[in-house]
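Researcher: We plan to redesign the surface later, but first we want a full-length starting point. Tokens attached.
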């Protein structure tokens, strides 16, 4: 039996906060309390640092297979661990795209060998992400938790309707990247949101709306939900935290809110319960690709500090609320027993130094890519350590598998 004792931590989860000791036994939270000593346990002294449930990201691009110059499963996992994430759902716009069992099996096997964070691949909705012919959703089903053509909306209503029907039969959600091109951004997003909500009601399938950026989309979502549609949605840290008015027109899809006013409406929608999850849409690109106009933000490492600085320090969200959006909410959508520090939940945790301020610079990243408008920003809420099922995977700039093999090398015995 392996036991990790986290001594003297300030535990914060969606149910509240308390200070004391947390034991993780065989990968799950076990005893919680004060002042215990467990013979044989490894001890990590928290020294009053804040402990949150490990974060769960519903939306990231690790670019593997196909774009090793931007990211791969190893550097993406390093970046995730550094950002406090212990489970990550990966989009299908790889090369080849994730539209066949061979590609998903490659991703799962490589992720398993890395053994850093949990990787949950998403399968493509359509073959080659071309939006025409459905991928073999049934053949993909044993390996994926959901389907998405993220990067592009599924333009054809007949294709989306059939995808929802088949996904429903398989018991899996469809994740929609809501964007009709050519009609302007908020209209293009809201039109597809409205269509997909209607199709979800019609088919009874589970629908999850990705990276909503228009307050109008949130209103449509709330209406459909009050009519009983089984629908959830995510919003990104950059759409909540950054506007074009203050950060310029940084190229990302969907675009940043144009004004502080629109950004405020999106934050109000979050506070009103529109979004169950904050998802990073971590989209790494090389400087050359960015110069050629590639949309995207490398965001998994700065997600928590950006949200902590913009919302928690400003008194706009409490830390238990932020914890819900980064862990419990997305874990429920993924069907994982994560997101609470309670006995029986997965022993995934992140230790944060709330008052540790730092400037985001090129050297702060484990991702291969540093494409983000937050470079140069001063943020608080530095990630100190990340624990996955009772194993330390990141601590003080060091990563398991890269800088140490086993946390016995970095913590003391109790
Ligand atoms: C995404 C990417 O780079 O894969 N980019 C982004 O700006 N979000 C795909 C997308 O356009 O959604």
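Model: Full-length starting sequence:
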């Amino acid at each position: 039996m392996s036991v990790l004792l986290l001594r003297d931590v300030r535990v914060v989860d969606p149910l509240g906060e308390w200070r004391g000791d947390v034991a993780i036994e065989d990968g799950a939270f076990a005893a919680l309390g004060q002042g215990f000593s467990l013979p044989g346990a490894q001890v990590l002294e928290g020294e009053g640092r804040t402990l949150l449930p490990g974060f769960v990201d519903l939306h990231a691009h690790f670019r593997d297979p196909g774009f090793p110059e931007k990211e791969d499963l190893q550097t993406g996992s390093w970046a995730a661990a550094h950002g406090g994430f212990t489970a990550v759902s990966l989009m299908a716009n790889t090369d080849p795209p994730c539209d066949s069992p061979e590609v998903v099996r490659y991703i799962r096997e490589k992720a398993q060998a890395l053994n850093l964070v949990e990787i949950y691949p998403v399968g493509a909705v359509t073959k080659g992400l071309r939006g025409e012919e459905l991928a073999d959703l049934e053949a993909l089903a044993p390996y994926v938790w959901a389907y998405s053509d993220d990067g592009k909306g599924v333009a054809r209503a007949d294709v989306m309707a059939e995808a929802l029907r088949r996904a429903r039969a398989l018991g899996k959600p469809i994740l929609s990247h809501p964007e009709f091109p050519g009609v302007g951004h908020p209209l293009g997003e809201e039109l597809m949101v409205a269509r997909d909500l209607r199709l979800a009601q019609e088919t009874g399938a589970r629908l999850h709306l990705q990276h909503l950026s228009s307050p109008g989309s949130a209103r449509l979502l709330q209406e459909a939900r009050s009519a009983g549609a089984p629908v959830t949605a995510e919003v990104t840290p950059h759409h909540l935290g950054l506007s074009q008015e203050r950060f310029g027109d940084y190229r990302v899809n969907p675009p940043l809110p144009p004004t502080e006013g629109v950004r405020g409406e999106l934050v109000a929608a979050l506070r009103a319960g529109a979004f169950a999850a904050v998802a990073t849409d971590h989209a790494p690109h090389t400087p050359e690709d960015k110069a050629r106009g590639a949309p995207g933000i490398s965001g998994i490492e700065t997600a928590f500090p950006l949200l902590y600085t913009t919302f928690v320090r400003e008194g706009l969200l409490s830390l238990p609320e932020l914890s819900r959006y980064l862990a419990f909410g997305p874990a429920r959508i993924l069907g994982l027993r994560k997101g609470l520090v309670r006995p029986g939940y997965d022993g995934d945790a992140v230790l944060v130094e709330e008052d540790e301020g730092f400037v985001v610079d090129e050297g702060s990243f484990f991702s291969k890519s540093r494409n983000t408008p937050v470079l140069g920003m001063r943020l608080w809420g530095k990630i100190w350590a990340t624990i996955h099922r009772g194993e330390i995977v990141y601590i003080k700039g060091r990563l398991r598998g890269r800088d140490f093999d086993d946390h016995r090398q970095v913590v003391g015995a109790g």
